[in-house]
Design brief:
With about 200 residues, the chain is an alpha+beta fold. It has one domain: NADH Oxidase, CATH 3.40.109. Helices cover about 35% and strands about 15% of the residues. The protein has eight helices and four strands; from the N terminus they run ααβααβαβαβαα. α2 runs antiparallel to α5. The radius of gyration is 17 Å and the shape is globular. The relative contact order is 0.22.
Length: about 200
């Protein structure tokens, strides 16, 4: 089954979106032999660097770990539940870190938001490059922070799997069912608290 060409993977939108947004989804099946070349990986990270941030403080930080490295194993070992079952086939795992401080006395209240924007830009650039991302919240943040000697003003917010789409047949039956299930979203009207 080739989910890249499968129309069920396209977002069923209420208004037309640019293709790159409509095509973006979060797979769990990655090609465990694929290697992302350094130029492409740098381009994906460059997109994150150029995301907007409050007062241009740029609080986004990234721990980039290529499959086969000790850093990859460390991040993978910190994943929880189902994430650990499939994420080892991704080409790269990225721990997304927010630098929380502005200086010694002030915290940046927008640090996590701005990191989210950077990860969104990374995700869309990855999609443009023919790659796929999957964002994860199930991980041991303290284990990652300790392993990479992060200071108290740095917090691991999420982990991104990055790679080339694989085959759903290679997943466990339960994960395969999730992989091929129709994509759904709440109606836009449910998200708009006010729309005057």
């Amino acid at each position: 089954m080739n989910l890249t060409a499968d129309a069920s993977r396209l977002a069923d939108t209420e208004s037309p979106l640019i293709n790159i947004l409509a095509e973006r989804w979060s797979p769990r099946a990655y090609d465990k032999t694929a290697v992302i070349d350094e130029a492409t990986l740098t381009t994906v990270l460059e997109a994150a660097r150029w995301a907007p941030s409050a007062s241009n403080m740029q609080p986004a930080r990234f721990i980039v770990a290529r499959r086969g490295s000790a850093s990859f194993a460390t991040i993978h070992d910190a994943l929880m539940g189902f994430n650990q079952v499939w994420a080892d086939t991704a080409s790269v795992l990225i721990a997304n870190v927010a630098k929380l401080s502005i200086d010694e006395t002030r915290e940046n209240p927008w640090a996590r938001y701005d990191l989210g924007q950077a990860v969104a830009h990374l995700s869309i650039q990855a999609q443009h490059e023919g790659l796929h991302t999957h964002q994860m919240g199930g991980f041991d943040a303290a284990a990652i922070a300790g392993a990479f000697n992060l200071t108290d003003d740095h917090t691991v917010v999420s982990v991104t799997a990055l790679g080339v789409l694989g085959r759903p047949e290679d997943l466990t039956p339960e994960l395969r069912k999730r992989e091929v299930a129709p994509r759904t979203r709440k109606p836009l009207s449910d998200l708009l608290l006010t729309n005057d």
